[in-house]
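Lab notebook: predicted structure, single chain.

Context: the supervisor wants predicted structures on file for every construct in the current expression panel, including those that have not yet been purified. This is the next one on the list. No modifications to the sequence; it matches the entry in the shared construct table.
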Amino acid sequence: MRALGAALLAMTLLAGCAVGPDYKRPTVADPQVFRGQPSPEATSLADLPWWEAFQDPVLKDLIREALASNYSVQIAAARVREARAHVGEAQSKFFPWIGYGFTAQDQRNGIATQLGLNSTSGPQAQQLYAGVLAMSWEMDLWGRIRRSTEAAQANLLATADAQRGVLLSLVSDLAQAYFELLALDVNLQIARNSTDAFQSTYNLFKDRLQYGVASELQTSRAQGSLGAAQATIPEVEAKIAAKENQICILLGRTPGPIPRGTPMYDQPVTPTVPAGLPSALLERRPDLRQAEQEMVRANALVGVAKADFFPKLSLTALLGTASPELAAVTHGASLVWQAGAGLAGPIFQGGRILSNYRAHVAQWEQTKFQYEQAVLTALREVSDALTVLAKLTQAEAAQATSVKGLEEAVSHANDRYLYGLSSYYEVLEAEQELFPAQNKLAQIRRDRLLAYVQLYKALGGGWNLTDEQWIDQGKTSGG
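Prediction complete. Output recorded below exactly as produced.
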């Protein structure tokens, strides 16, 4: 009992000691503004919930469906539940282990009789019954259990941030695929318009050829241009079907058609979007928060590895009854008890503990470098999206001017040809320049919409929403 009391006293004195380094966030790049941002801004696009960032009602319905049914979201939620259970497992080591046991033995010792050790002439039958309650409790003198719990809690937070990252990625991936689908619709309409135009030209040449006004060369050239335009229609239709199938997978449903809402050219695109402060990325982007929690976990595991250098103190106790008669056991007639304390520590293990400690230090260094790299990558992604959004605004205005001029050129070329002032080649040249220019304009508008989506994701959009608001928003908001 004196030994047990001394052990308890030592536990009390050392209870506040936890070996290993305490976590401190490393210094990372922190510019005043993002590249491509004219001046620091307090507000940010990331402050908007996704249902305000994307105004298309059909897109919002698709996002709601995806958040409720997407398999990646469900897998991420299951991983959070798993990590939460591991935290409970780690915390359980703070408490004593209590168990029970019951044994029954029946043996005959014939050898003892032959040696003359028994008082009777024959072998003796012996029965023994025992029932006990046992307790074992490891004292967390060096903080090994506390560091293990800290690592488990950091893993839980990292898993929760990974779940938020899945939600944000799903919203952005779905919005991107939806805008790409709208762009394909525009490409299909351009292909059909070009086919109609070349069909009209071909019909005209066929009629003029019959009357000897047009040549076979002109008619053949018109037919070739018509065939090339017709070939693009099924090609674009195949891309549309593939894009719709991609969206269906994000929705967690079998492949099928996808409804459309606002046409691409009617989708709002703001030339300049507030990006907020670069320092806010550390708190808003789920991937950065996840990377930091992985660093916290690795830091705690360094403490766990360091605690293995020190001895472990365990308290044990046993209480029960034992008797050759079962009735005596059940009535507690023969009491058995035991209490003690044990101290065990390493002396020589061939460098295993030291190597394990060094390995955990190296793992922490890896997570630190990964976190610093992730911060730089985040800054680059925001800067890229800001720059693309600003520059494509200028590019779209210039391309729109080009398309307008080419449309007028096609109209003039047709008029000149009908009045005999120019050859067909002038018409063909104008048409062959117009339709690629229209596709280029559609591509620029699509890229502007995608840059807006990427900026929302890069800034950590919806960072202030709870998990319930992410998924259940559609039941309360209008539109």
